[in-house]
Amino acid sequence: MTDEMDNKDLAERVRLIENMMAEGRQRTARWGWSLVLWGVAYYVATAWASLGKSNLAWPATMTAAALITAIGASRMTKGQPATTLSRAVGGVWRAMGISISILLFSLSFAGRYETHVFVAAFGAMLGMVNLASAIMLRWKAQYVCAMVWLISTVIASFGSDQATSVGFLAAIFLCQIVFGIYAMVCESRRRRSGVVHA
Is the pLDDT of residue 174 over 80? Predict the structure, then answer.
């Protein structure tokens, strides 16, 4: 009888964990708009820095994107209870955002914005945060994003200027724009099906 109870208890716990991860993926999918926003911001900053040769391109663009994200986040989270998993995933992303902001501001204002170093560090940080989220949420699509960002880091470390730029722009497109749109589609389908989680 005890073995049977232990197996039922274990199965119940596994189901609970799986439900928590599914809910975490759904909550993360609600943030698809911010992935697209940041992808567009990365493109704007890249174009501005390349064409305008301005050290203010990245800090100014990232500050604007951060303000828009903060406004959107305050509206999204109003009245929504936070779970341990959502706090963990959100905390990892906020920590990365702060770290990458310090990196961008420092490189820009010091005049040490070197493409290979920048893309390698940027890709590593975005690879790390996507990988951490993918591990917590067990979301295969986000694993793919993590690998693409980490590949862009390797390309930036060993590749030519052109390969570095192409790798970076491709990673932005696939991991920010495409993944963000995918997340928004997942969220839209969930809403249409009437599935609502607190």
Answer: yes
Q: Give the whole-angstrom CA distance, residue 106 versus residue 26.
A: 35
Interior CA angle at 163 toward 100 and 47, to 5°?
A: 55
What Å distances lie between residue 73 and 28, 50, 77, 172, CA to CA?
12, 30, 6, 22
Is residue 48 classed exposed, middle or buried when 0-12, 13-18 and 19+ CB atoms within 10 A define those classes? Answer: middle
**Would you tell me the crossing angle of helices 115-137 and 84-110 to the nearest 10 degrees?**
180
Residue 99: what residue type?
Answer: S
pTM score above 0.85: no
